[in-house]
Amino acid sequence: MRNRSVATVAIATIAALGLAACGSSNEPDTTPGAQTSSLETKAGGAGGEVGVFTWWAAGSEKKGLDELEKLFKEKYPNDTFVNLAVAGGAGSNAKAKLASDLQNNQPPDSFQGHAGAELLDYIDAEQIEPVNDVIDALGGASVFPQSLLDRLTVDGNIYSVPSNIHRSNVVWANAEVLKKAGITQAPADMKAWIADMEKVKASGVSTPLSVAGTWTQTHLFESVLLADLGVEKYNGLFDGSTKWDAPEVKTAVNDFKTVLSYANTASDGDDWPVATDMVIDGKAAYNVMGDWAVAQFNDKGKKEQTDYTYFPTPGTDGVFLFLADSFTLPKGAKNPGGSKDWLSLVGSAEGQQAFNIAKGSIPARTDVAPTEFPPYQQSAMESFKNDQIASSIQHGAAVPLAWLTDINAAISKFYTNKDEATLVTDLATAATKYVG
What we know:
The structure is a single chain. The chain has helices spanning 6-23, 59-75, 92-103, 117-124, 132-138, 146-150, 175-180, 190-202, 214-236, 247-260, 272-280, 293-299, 336-346, 349-359, 375-386, 401-417, 420-432, and strands at 48-53, 79-83, 110-114, 128-129, 153-154, 157-158, 161-162, 166-167, 170-174, 286-288, 308-312, 319-323, 325-327, 329-330, 388-391. The protein is an alpha+beta fold and 436 residues long. The chain folds into two domains: 6-166 and 325-378, Periplasmic binding protein-like II (D-Maltodextrin-Binding Protein, domain 2, 3-Layer(aba) Sandwich), CATH 3.40.190; 170-315 and 400-432, D-Maltodextrin-Binding Protein, domain 2 (3-Layer(aba) Sandwich). The strands form five sheets. The chain has a five-stranded mixed sheet with strand order 2-1-3-13-7, sandwiched between helices. Strands 8-12-15 form a three-stranded mixed sheet, sandwiched between helices.
């Protein structure tokens, strides 16, 4: 599978996720020994510093990482956790530094990477080692969906340990703002949502929709694409069966331009909590953000269905727009034993429960009981099990880093000039580099 084309990766990803949605029950696994395996390590861990590189530097993301750090210190007292988090840009700042560190043979002991096309960048560059032994010790396919493991596997080797699953296509809304505007139900499609934004604006809220920097705009755009293209044609964007200058893409670009006309003016450096807080504070009605946002509402003391509500991006009901975080064993890590201690915690049932409750995501493991989670995460588990699956563009599941860089550049240009034809051309031109 090494040096596969992006099209081949996309097809494999989509097929695997379809199986994951059908086959992952998120009910406890009662297979004998499924939760009792462990790596043959020294009691208390390998010892030494364990540098862990992420972009979880603020908000609910940091709270999730803090929960893992606390457990790591408890389970592996001989190890010293070193937080190497780099803030900003949904990981874009972190990935730039990571690329430099890896190129200069200065890898951390483990780093965060998205499952899917993004992970293949590191595998093809031979920058990460297989972690089959860690996955096997954690219970393998008896606790992780085989289809998810397939997305982390190249040439029979598994290259990272999944920590969670996120949903990208979620609208977070201020319940009081919607009530004031006379909006009582979620809109069915883009046209209806735009009409509701007009109602919100007429009620006195000048910015019905909140956005932040470029990556949040690409995050929004992928949901608009999914809404206007549907699952099959959206997935086809990554294997060449749907052209990036197709009529449906042009419709999505037009809708994207329209919804942005209801949004605030953002700076490229603004990160997602800024936009989510606008909804929390009633300065905006809506924000499209991954389900890490739920922890932001909860941290501010807001109550679900009373202070805030949520629903799939209009036009995407019945579809789970997927991404997953995972952790790697870099080639040349200074403390590979400590790295495996970290990976063992990340992939454990206890680690995944503590981390995902704090972060707003759902466990990658299927033996963590949904009843332990708040209502939103329970609904996400149900959706992942039953709904159709599509892969996130912004968050590494659908496209490799180089392609995402081109897409973000096109979106950034569009945010300034609002030239629909140029955006379509830029997207289509970028795709020709990666899809045959």
